[in-house]
Structures are given as structure tokens and as C-alpha cells.
Amino acid sequence: MLEFWYLGCAPCREDHKKMKLISKSLKDKKVEVIGLSTDENILEWQKYLRNNEYDWTNYVVPETNTLLNDLKISSYPSYFLIDSNYNFIGVFANINQFQYDFLDKLK
Questions:
Q1: What is the chain's alpha carbon radius of gyration, rounded to the nearest angstrom?
Q2: DSSP assignment of 77-90, as one string?
Q3: What range defines the domain where residue 22 resides?
Q4: What is the predicted pLDDT for the residue at 42?
């Protein structure tokens, strides 16, 4: 699951707290989260991740990156779920929607 976020996004930070709570369920169901942040202040970004001990992979992607334009990212957070064969499965506006619409239905 690709998660698009940035530090100034309060809903993104709230979702991170929820994701931390369901991280075992994510791992058990083989969902890997890759966070893609548009933050420019790398030190603040690193400090935030370190202080909150979030264990999923995170990268910084400049807002000028073509990926953001190609996926038409216009709101944050945004979640894109793809399978291991790179097939698109769904888009979710928040972690609650992802959990309800997808994660809870996985066996």
C-alpha cells in the first residue's frame, strides 16, 4: 500500500497513530505500507518518524515528482493499494476506509 502524506497534514498524522495500532494485522495479512511524503524539511520528517517509532518504510518524494501527477494526488492522506504483481486494487481516503473496505475482509 502506498501512502501519500506530509507533516502539515493533521489527518495524515492521525492515520499514522491508527496504522501503528493495526500494524500487526497489516503484517499478518501481508500488507506492506510504503509512505511517500512531500515534506521538504528532511530533519523534521526524520525526527517525526523516529519519535513516533513508525516501523513502515518511508520516503520523501518532491511535489514536482511525476508520480504525484500521474496518480493525480490532490488530497492527503491518499492510499493506493497494489498487489504483488503491481495490479491496482483500490484507492482509500483514510486508514479507516482501508481497514473497513479491505483489511477486515481479508482472511
A1: 13
A2: SEEEEE-TT--EEE
A3: 2-105
A4: 94
- Say which residues have a Cβ less than 8 Å from residue 30's Cβ, sequence separation at least 6: none
Q: Which three cell numbers stand for residue 63?
A: 511535489
CATH at residue 12: 3.40.30.10
- Overall domain count for the chain: 1
Q: List the beta strands (DSSP E) in the chain.
A: 2-5, 34-37, 57-60, 78-82, 88-92
Residues of the chain predicted below pLDDT 70: 107
Please give the pLDDT value at position 105. Answer: 77
pTM above 0.85, yes or no: yes
The whole-angstrom separation of Cα 91 and Cα 89 is 7
Q: What is the pLDDT of residue 107?
A: 61
Evaluated on CA atoms 39, 72, 106, 100, the torsion sign reads positive
